[in-house]
Design a protein that fits this description.
single chain, alpha/beta, Rossmann fold, Dihydrodipicolinate Reductase, domain 2, 9-stranded mixed β-sheet, 6-stranded parallel β-sheet, 14 helices, 33% helix, 21% strand, globular
C-alpha cells in the first residue's frame, strides 16, 4: 500500500507529530507556519524534498492525502473547512471549534466532503486509559453510573522560559483561555471508553489568581472549573477542563453498578480495580492492584512517543482510517460535542452554574439554534476582539508589574 502523504499546518505542536507519522511509514510532503525559524528547523530535519510554506493558500495546493491542523488553539475551524472542501482528510489538534457557530459550520462542511475529520485527541490512547476502556467494555463493571476525568497541568508562574516558549504577546490565546475550554484531555477518555455522551452541563469556578509579581498576564482568575455532565444514558461525569491544582498529573475513574476502576496517581500505569464482594468475576479478586502492560505489536515505538504513547497511537489510527477510508471514532460529531461542553460549561460558570443542554449537531434543529452564535473569549489574528468574558471575576486583569515582567521575558 502506498505511503500516506501528510502536510502539517502549524509547526509548534504539529512538529511534535512528525516522528510519529514517520514511524508509521507516512511521508511528510509539506509544512507551513508563519514563523520562518520553525519552518527552517523542521525543513533541515526532513530534508530537501519537503515543500515549505508560510502561506496556507499555497500550502493547501500541494498533493496530500491528509493535513495536520495545529495552528492557534482557537483558530482551527476555517482551515479545517478549507481542507474538507478540497477532500483532504483532517487530523486536528484540540479543539475543533472555539465558537458554537463554527461547530455548525464544521459539521455541515464535513457532511459535504468526501474526506473525514478526526480529532487528534491523544489522552484516550494512554496506556492506563486503554486498560480502563478494555475492562469497561468487558462488562464486569456493570452499568455505567459515574466517571471522573482530571487533567491537571499547573505551571511555575515565575518561570520566564515558558513565557518565551508558550506566548507571543499579551493577546495570545493562552492568556484568555477559560478553564473549561481545554476540556478534551479530561473528558475525551471517558467518552471514548464508555460511549456515554454529555447532554447537559453545569459548572463552578475555582478562583485562585496568579501572584501579583509574577511574569504572567493571564486574564483568567480561575485555577480550575468543576464541570458536571449528565449523559445520554443517565450516567454522570465530573471533569475539570484544564486544572492547575498543586502536583500535576492525570486521573480517571469509571464506576459501574458492580465495580469501579481508576488509574493510580504518581505511579507508572498502575490500576485499582475493585468489585462488590458478591459480584467478583471469575479469575479476579475483589480488590485488584496491578500495572497495565502494552499488548501491541508496536509497543516499543509507543513507549518512545510523547503523552504516554498517545501521540503514536492517535497518529497510527488516523493513517489506518485514511488507508481503509474508514470514519474515525473521534469524528466531527465527537469533536463538536466536546467543544460544545467546553463552551457552554463556561457560560454556565459565568451564570452561577445555570445548566445548559448540549446540542446534537446531527440534528438540523440543533444546528439552527447555534448557527449564528459567535460568542468568543479570545482575540483573533485578524484583530477581532473577545465578545464574552473569559473569567467569572469581574474587572480581573494583570498588574502593571506582571505586564512589565511578562514583556521583558518575551524580549530576553
Amino acid at each position: 500500500m502506498k505511503q500516506v502523504k501528510i502536510g502539517i499546518f502549524g509547526l509548534g505542536r504539529g512538529g511534535h507529530y512528525i516522528k510519529n507519522f514517520l514511524a508509521n511509514n507516512a511521508e511528510i510532503v509539506a509544512i507551513c507556519d508563519n514563523n520562518p525559524k520553525k519552518v527552517k528547523l523542521l525543513a533541515d530535519k526532513l530534508g530537501k524534498d519537503v515543500a515549505c510554506f508560510d502561506n496556507f493558500d499555497e500550502f493547501i495546493e500541494q498533493e496530500m492525502d491528509g493535513v495536520v491542523i495545529a495552528n492557534y488553539f482557537h483558530e482551527h475551524t476555517k482551515y479545517i473547512i478549507r481542507c474538507l472542501e478540497k477532500n483532504l482528510h483532517v487530523f486536528c489538534e484540540c479543539t475543533s471549534n472555539s465558537t458554537m457557530a463554527e461547530g455548525v459550520q464544521l459539521v455541515r462542511a464535513a457532511e459535504k466532503s468526501k474526506a473525514f475529520f478526526m480529532l487528534a485527541e491523544n489522552y484516550p490512547y494512554m496506556l492506563f486509559n486503554q486498560e480502563m476502556k478494555r475492562v469497561y467494555e468487558g462488562g464486569t463493571l456493570g452499568k455505567l453510573l459515574y466517571a471522573e476525568g482530571e487533567y491537571n497541568h499547573p505551571g511555575d508562574p515565575y518561570n520566564t522560559d515558558s513565557v518565551r516558549s508558550l506566548f507571543d504577546g499579551e493577546k495570545h490565546w493562552r492568556n484568555f483561555l477559560p478553564r473549561t475550554y481545554y476540556i478534551t484531555h479530561s473528558l475525551a477518555p471517558l467518552v471514548f471508553a464508555t460511549g456515554a455522551l454529555p447532554v447537559r452541563v453545569t459548572a463552578m469556578p475555582v478562583v485562585a489568581p496568579a501572584p501579583k509579581d509574577c511574569a504572567r498576564v493571564g486574564q483568567v482568575a480561575e485555577k480550575a472549573a468543576i464541570i458536571t455532565c449528565l449523559n445520554d444514558d443517565q450516567s454522570v461525569f465530573r471533569v475539570t477542563g484544564c486544572a492547575a491544582f498543586g502536583a500535576e498529573g492525570n486521573f480517571y475513574r469509571i464506576c459501574g453498578e458492580k465495580g469501579q476502576i481508576e488509574n493510580v496517581k504518581g505511579t507508572d500505569n498502575f490500576i485499582n480495580l475493585n468489585y462488590n464482594s458478591w459480584e467478583v468475576p471469575e479469575g479476579k479478586e475483589q480488590h485488584n492492584y496491578y500495572q497495565a502492560q502494552w499488548n501491541d505489536k508496536d509497543a516499543e515505538l509507543i513507549k518512545q512517543a510523547g503523552h504516554g504513547g498517545g501521540d503514536f497511537c492517535v497518529a497510527r489510527k488516523f493513517l489506518e482510517c485514511v488507508k481503509t477510508n474508514t470514519p474515525p471514532d473521534m469524528d466531527v460529531y465527537f469533536a463538536t460535542r466536546l467543544a460544545s461542553v467546553a463552551i457552554l460549561s463556561h457560560r454556565s460558570m459565568l451564570e452561577g452554574g445555570v445548566p445548559y443542554d448540549i446540542p446534537d449537531f446531527r440534528k438540523e434543529e440543533d444546528r439552527v439554534k447555534y448557527e449564528n452564535d459567535t460568542l468568543s473569549p479570545f482575540w483573533y489574528s485578524d484583530g477581532t476582539a473577545p465578545t464574552i468574558p473569559c473569567t467569572t471575576v469581574k474587572d480581573y486583569g494583570p498588574t502593571q508589574v506582571q505586564r512589565e515582567k511578562f514583556n521583558k521575558a518575551l524580549q530576553e
